Amino acid sequence: MAERTTLDAAATASRIRSALLSWDAIILIALALVIAVSAASIDGVANPRFWRFVTLEVIPIALIALPLTLVIITGEIDLSVASVLGLTCVVVGYLWESGVTSLPMLIVAALLLGAGLGALNGVFVTVFGLPSLAVTIGTLALYRGLAYVVLGDRAVANYPQNWTMGAIAPLPGTTIPWAILVVIALAVGFGLLLHATPIGRAIYAIGNNAEAARFAGISVARTKFWLFVATGTMAALAGVFWTLRFASARADNGQGLELAVVAAVLLGGVSIFGGRGTILGVVGAVVLLATLRNALQLAYVPANTLTIITGSLLIASVVGPNAVGMMRQRIRRRFTIPPTK
Amino acid sequence: MKHLRALALVAIASLTLGTAACADETTPESSPSGATGGIRPGLKIAFLPKQVNNPYFDTSDNQGGKVAVEEFGGEFLQTGPTEAGASAQVSYINTLSQQQFDAIVVSANDRDAICGALNEARQAGAKVVTYDSDTNPECRDLFINQATAEGIAKVQLELISEAIGPEGGEIAILSATANATNQNTWIEMMKAELENNPDYANLELVDVVYGDDDDQKSFAEAQGLLARHPNLKGIISPTTVGVAAAARYLSGSEYKGRVKLTGLGTPNQMRAYIKDGTVEAFALWNPADLGYLAAYAAAALASGLITGAEGETFEAGRLGEYTVGENTTVLLGDPFVYNADNIDDFDF
């Protein structure tokens, strides 16, 4: 009896320990640390306005990072997301200029466009079997080029004030924009999809071994296709928010944003090789990166240094687990006594 | 293994915050000095150019704005994005308003995209002065214009026309970013002048390309121009990055001396090309004076000496007294022509 309870206690303790040491926990602890230390040492972090700006920055990145997490877990990648955002922005601007004055219609048009652009990526990857890295680098350039074709070098900026102010309006009684609720709802949705449904399990299975998943009856091509569509749609939604937040639709909107999104997803514990990662980790990483960037900027750290820091964090999160694994292999090989005859 | 990952991540995060706490490379520099002409001492003034690491803005901000701020005893900071993008400036404006700067002096990459952020900053108590490239007048208090748009357009056409000669020919414009307010105003004026002025009847504008104030892109665009228009006789590049890149391309190519180049350049960048004959003359104003005047204007606003209304006057140190003109704009002066005779007199 006593042995049983000791074993149970040991098992629980070990489960707690591994939960605490899971990457999600590490990210959340790091986030708490960053908030605590910066609130204490940097002037202005404790001010609600700071959190308003952090949230405004987080919203488009989080919107795109959610479906991108699922895409990367299946072992693919989508680098065209920022170009989808940009193309959506200019199409919305173009439609507005051409007389479409209904906001719901513009949003629906944007989402359909995003879905279509994502579907194109999906077709190239699943039907033609091309590697997603190559495809999405191509569509990154293609969609951005199309954005320049639609609007040229102009900007469309004369949106009604109640749209642009409404997009970034705060929740009553706070300074935090209401749009964060949409992001939270979507995060919960994607989290449930990934962690609590058969589709989610299928996504992990595909990421771990696509052949085995296919033999197990999972429709790998169809799953990947719909994930690309989802990514395009969310990038388009982020594009609508972007246009209204900056009150300006330009062909270069969001240029370079894909790097911030991919950095957040990888920092969130998603393995670039697929098969591992959680929504919670990614959300934590998005907030962590945005908070760190804004806090350091507030502390007068110059732009070049900020890029170095973000890059180092990203390298640490990708190289770290792999480097450690390699070291363990070496140690094990050196200290393994070869079997004697 | 997991411990190592945890430690690594936490270590990096704490190290970065630690360096931030000790970082003093770009903390605002304050200088003790008495009040100058009614300007409140200790004003925090930030310069936010189109992009940092750009020699033109380094001159205007550090050799103009900073000098002025030190003269009247304020705190100076230069910050900004490394790439000339519209929404990139927004995050810096938000940060500056949180850091409670008294005045933000900004050169806008896009006329409207930074408006929301600027107005939020003004509501939080900062005065906003634009210099070099204006925004929508609704979101700033004053605009410091380096020269009249007409003056700049005219002088560049004069210079290219003189360089090409009376027989005229095809010309092209190598601009900066497509949405930069100042660039577009100058281009429109040049087009109007070409149409209306009989002196330029033999000049034909065949192309306008954009180098985005990026050296490599401007170089490539200059190459593209010559490839597309083999009969091109002259290029006008009203941006210091563009004219330097185009000069570099022309002076190393078969077109040197055959295709004329002029534009807005800085003496140090253009000296070699003036001396080797690639460029006969180019124009500019003194960017250090521009930054200097902008800083004094911002200080006058922040001290309550002026409100930005037309007709008000204020003192701008060694530049003397300036008056606010129409459209809440302050004009620096006339453009200045640099050529082989005077290029060695300047160092910026």
Structure description:
The complex is a heterodimer of chains A (341) and B (348). Chain A has 341 residues and is mostly helical. Chain A is built from 14 helices and two strands. Chain A has a two-stranded antiparallel sheet. In chain A, helix 5 (103-127) runs antiparallel to helix 6 (132-151). The longest helix of chain A is centred in the C-terminal third of the chain and has 33 residues, at 303-335. Chain A is globular. The mean pLDDT of chain A is 88. Chain B is built from ten helices and 15 strands. In chain B, the strands form four sheets. Chain B has a seven-stranded mixed β-sheet, sandwiched between helices. Chain B has a four-stranded parallel β-sheet with strand order 8-7-9-10, sandwiched between helices. In chain B, strands 11-15 form a two-stranded antiparallel ribbon. Chain B is elongated, with a radius of gyration of 22 Å. Chains A and B meet through helix 2, helix 3, helix 11, helix 13 and helix 14 of A and helix 1 and helix 3 of B.
